[in-house]
Amino acid sequence: MDFSTSPHTDALRQRLLTFMDDAIYPNEAVYTKQVSATANRWESPPIMETLKSQARAAGLWNLFLPDSELGAGLSNVEYAPLCEILGRSDIAPEACNCAAPDTGNMEVFVRYGTDEHRERWLSPLLEGRIRSAYAMTEPAVASSDATNIEARIERDGDHYVVNAHKWWASGAGDTRCRVFILMGKTDPTAAKHKQQSMVVVPADAPGVTLVRPLTVFGYDHAPHGHFEVTFENVRIPATDVLLGEGRGFEIAQGRLGPGRIHHCMRLIGLAERALEAMCARAKSRVAFGGPLAQQGVVMEAIANSRIEIDQARLLTLNAAHMMDTVGNKFARAEIAMIKVVAPNMALNVIDRAIQLHGGAGVCDDFGLAAAWVHARYLRLADGPDEVHRRAVARIELKKGTAPS
Ligand SMILES: Cc1cc2nc3c(=O)[nH]c(=O)nc-3n(C[C@H](O)[C@H](O)[C@H](O)COP(=O)(O)OP(=O)(O)OC[C@H]3O[C@@H](n4cnc5c(N)ncnc54)[C@H](O)[C@@H]3O)c2cc1C
Fold it and tell me: Among 2.10.260.10, 1.10.260.40, 2.40.110.10, 2.40.30.110, what is the CATH number of 131-242?
């Protein structure tokens, strides 16, 4: 396996590190303060637009997009170290227009959108002028098995009519969110994986209602947020069914491949930052006659964190390499493995950092509580651990058995 980097990605990495030091870290507190001070929590704070302009001017824009005309044209292995750096801060991915769910949605428009979709939705998304949401999960059914989805998308002349009750649509409440990509059933009588389609629904279409924001362990994640949304008799033109009826699963596979691994890359960066905080605290905090760093158990916590982060990074790079060389379809096991490993690794590392900070670890002063919450929900948000383990086990069980 070749994980070596090119001079081009090395230069991007250096530029990104400088941008993090000069623009991102010093403005994290500014961002939080501005969100708290805004009358409408779902309005993006002004500092974000400043950061976006700076990132764009520095050529740190749309790094995630493999298309070299529309984005940076990087492979997954090339993007991994950059995405890891972005993951160190909550605000860095959006500043560089590399934030979920827009990244996945942009990839869908690039691959499956019509010319009109590209002009109306993809262009402003690529320019960071609007945001988007992805609506698949439903409160009424176990959505980790997407064949359960009950949303209906019914043909009516030149249109389709959408009726759906969704929740956990991340980013839906952001006042800049202009469009949903929604998964529902066009033909409940078709073969199990051909019943579903993905459609494009403008956020301001009549019949779309934001019911309520959901909190994650008490965090509302404003101005992004996660929303319960209803779609009542929403009419969309027939051309807004992506790729055609019954091809929703096909798109989901394409959409969630790179998106899944981006979360893993970012989690490694998040864990690295927690480990740095752990080491700084261990060196500066004195108890029982010396710095905490001199305690054997603390050294063990630090060593285990380093070991687990490096293991997860290698597994992530391996998945990225497989996706680049044999394609997402044949990298299914590797993607599923890292989806289990990365959030659990990050949770362990962040938990140790919290413990070492004592009471300071569970408040918002060091960002560790928010980081833990972030890693914890990622054990669900791209599909629960169990579903990924199931995928790995099924692939393993299909392999031939050794002669006894
Ligand atoms: C913060 C956050 C953001 C999210 N963002 C989005 C978004 O933007 N768009 C969107 O559509 N969805 C989003 N989701 C939803 C997420 O994708 C779903 O929560 C997830 O797919 C699980 O579906 P479910 O909640 O219906 O759980 P269920 O399907 O009801 O599963 C519940 C539990 O059952 C167990 N389970 C399920 N299958 C198996 C199995 N095969 N073997 C053993 N145990 C199993 C697991 O423990 C699982 O956690 C988000 C979720 C969160 C928490």
Answer: 2.40.110.10
